[in-house]
Automatic annotation (TrEMBL):
<dbReference type="GO" id="GO:0035556">
    <property type="term" value="P:intracellular signal transduction"/>
</dbReference>
<dbReference type="InterPro" id="IPR017438">
    <property type="entry name" value="ATP-NAD_kinase_N"/>
</dbReference>
<comment type="subunit">
    <text>Monomer.</text>
</comment>
<keyword id="KW-0418">Kinase</keyword>
<dbReference type="InterPro" id="IPR037607">
    <property type="entry name" value="DGK"/>
</dbReference>
<protein>
    <recommendedName>
        <fullName>Diacylglycerol kinase</fullName>
        <ecNumber>2.7.1.107</ecNumber>
    </recommendedName>
</protein>
<dbReference type="InterPro" id="IPR016064">
    <property type="entry name" value="NAD/diacylglycerol_kinase_sf"/>
</dbReference>
<dbReference type="Pfam" id="PF00609">
    <property type="entry name" value="DAGK_acc"/>
</dbReference>
<dbReference type="InterPro" id="IPR000756">
    <property type="entry name" value="Diacylglycerol_kin_accessory"/>
</dbReference>
<keyword id="KW-0346">Stress response</keyword>
<feature type="compositionally biased region" description="Acidic residues">
    <location>
        <begin position="450"/>
        <end position="464"/>
    </location>
</feature>
<dbReference type="GO" id="GO:0006952">
    <property type="term" value="P:defense response"/>
</dbReference>
<dbReference type="Pfam" id="PF00781">
    <property type="entry name" value="DAGK_cat"/>
</dbReference>
<keyword id="KW-0547">Nucleotide-binding</keyword>
<dbReference type="GO" id="GO:0007200">
    <property type="term" value="P:phospholipase C-activating G protein-coupled receptor signaling pathway"/>
</dbReference>
<feature type="domain" description="DAGKc">
    <location>
        <begin position="32"/>
        <end position="185"/>
    </location>
</feature>
<keyword id="KW-0067">ATP-binding</keyword>
């Protein structure tokens, strides 16, 4: 790429300082960029690649529109930017109005980083919120893969970054559902309460900011946590393996600098944790049916019990067709089969998520086969897990790549996790996008698919006004001492 092309790229995507920095003088800016972008990069992701991307983007664009997430909180950046845009628009600046209308966001990092940015944009309730493109820079990269941005860590040279910018300019907008999680558990009689020891929740689950004291959902003697996700919530053995991986990476970060090494380490931990071993040789406490009672609500319906086969050791609530490195556990149900009569394709904007079960990792490998899928359990607008004293002291949970170890009741208390619809955000999608919208011009019909059958067979109701933010400002603030490299 010649210097002339670099300059053109700079002009097409750059934002002048007077837009980015309040109080800066407008020095006769006249060129309107076709695709103004704000870039957020987790420099601790992808080994050294995050830092290299920061340098490249800063060399191609105005360095004031490129932010290191280890230094700049995205909620503060966007709040300041939009406050300045609104002020300029109020003063009759048509250039600022066009910048706002055309603005797009690029976020480079793992799935946890991308989810963080989506939460911030969702909760700030910006006028004309910008759509988001994701640069794969983690281990799984499920979010980027679902929208056609690939799953391999990118190259960081000027040519590659300029090419990516051009794809961002050409990308189409796609709305996707976001999902709200609420979790309530009994407060311990002794020990730390913030978070509950030994609970270390991911940032998306308010590890550092519990529900306010005035919240109507608070109960005496209980803690209530809120969170959200865009891709998936999972529980069971898959989350346990993920937790083991994150714990190992936290102890030995120097070993986890290479994506290929990370994936091989993940596979090895899957073996040592028993995820590849037959459930016949494992304790029944690893089976979901022994751990929890599950209720679902279909669209505008009533709560009903969900039957979980006793062999299921992992359950996934999936919003996007990309899980465990880009695999699609739901597939295309064939409506000609009675068992699938009420099921549809996994649209990302239909107000429903797909509930899929797996017996073990070998069962997961069926996803590599044509028409392969997990055990389809339901499509729902709400799901509720109730844990009582019994089978185990703890289980493992995961949201959008971030796992935690969840203690279970030791007495007559109940731990409850409930998921419900929260709203929508805008993503940017390439022509390679795997996600399907209800509004696509020619959505494929599930009736043409020919699959085999599966190989195995109100307390929390609340108004949207009462829901605590789960993305912006303090709820997603990284406290001092939190290492960004551990955010997947």
């Amino acid at each position: 790429m010649g210097d002339g092309n670099c300059i053109r790229t700079l002009k097409e995507f750059s934002i002048p300082d007077y837009i980015l920095i309040p109080g800066t003088e407008n020095r006769g800016v006249t060129h309107l960029p076709a695709c103004p972008v704000v870039v957020f990069i987790n420099t601790k992701s992808g080994g050294q690649l995050g830092g290299e991307l920061l340098v490249t983007y800063s060399s191609l664009l105005n360095q004031n529109q490129v932010y290191d997430l280890g230094v700049h909180a995205p909620d503060k950046v966007l709040h300041q930017l939009y406050a300045n845009l609104e002020k300029l628009k109020h003063n009759g600046d048509h250039y600022a109005a066009e910048i706002q209308n055309r603005l797009r966001i690029i976020v480079a990092g793992g799935d946890g980083t991308a989810s963080w940015l989506l939460g911030v944009v969702s909760d700030l309730k910006l006028p004309h919120p910008p759509p988001i493109a994701t640069v794969p820079l983690g281990t799984g990269n499920n979010l980027p893969f679902a929208f056609g941005w690939g799953k391999k860590n990118p190259t960081t040279d000027i040519h590659s970054v300029a090419s990516f910018l051009n794809h961002v300019k050409a990308a189409k907008e796609m709305k996707i559902d976001s999902w709200h999680i609420i979790m309530r558990m009994k407060a311990p009689k002794e020990g730390s309460c913030d978070p509950i020891a030994p609970l270390e929740l991911p940032h998306a689950m308010h590890a550092f900011n519990r529900v306010s004291a005035t919240d109507k959902l608070n109960l005496d003697g209980y803690h209530t946590y809120r969170g959200g996700f865009w891709n998936y919530f999972s529980m069971g053995m898959d989350a346990q393996v993920s937790y083991a991986f994150h714990s190992e990476r936290k102890l030995h970060p120097e070993k986890f600098k290479n994506q290929l090494y990370n994936q091989s380490a993940y596979l090895k931990l899957g073996c040592t944790q028993g995820w590849f071993m037959s459930s016949l040789f494992q304790s029944s406490t690893r089976n979901i049916a022994q751990l929890t009672k599950v209720k679902i609500m279909k669209r505008h319906g009533q709560w009903e019990d969900l039957h979980i086969p006793r062999s299921i050791r992992s359950i996934v609530c999936l919003n996007l067709p990309s899980f465990s490195g880009g695999l699609d556990p739901w597939g295309k149900p064939n409506k000609k089969k009675s068992v699938y009569r009420d099921l549809t394709l996994p649209f990302v904007d239909d107000g429903l998520f797909e509930v899929v079960g797996f017996r073990d990792a070998w069962h997961g490998l069926v996803l590599f086969a044509p028409n392969g899928h997990g055990t389809r359990l339901a499509q729902a607008s709400k799901i509720r897990f109730e844990f009582h004293k019994g089978a185990a002291d703890c289980t493992f949970m995961r949201v959008d790549g971030e796992p935690w170890k969840q203690p279970l009741p030791k007495d007559d208390a109940t731990v409850v996790v409930e998921i419900s619809h929260h709203g929508q955000v805008s993503m940017l999608a390439t022509p390679l996008c795997r996600s399907k919208s209800m509004h696509d011009d020619n959505p494929p019909s599930p009736s043409i698919d020919h699959e085999e059958d599966d190989s195995s067979d109100d307390e929390f109701d609340e108004s949207s006004e009462e829901r605590r933010k789960f993305g912006a400002a303090e709820t997603f603030k990284y406290t001092e001492g939190v290492d960004m490299s551990h955010l997947s």
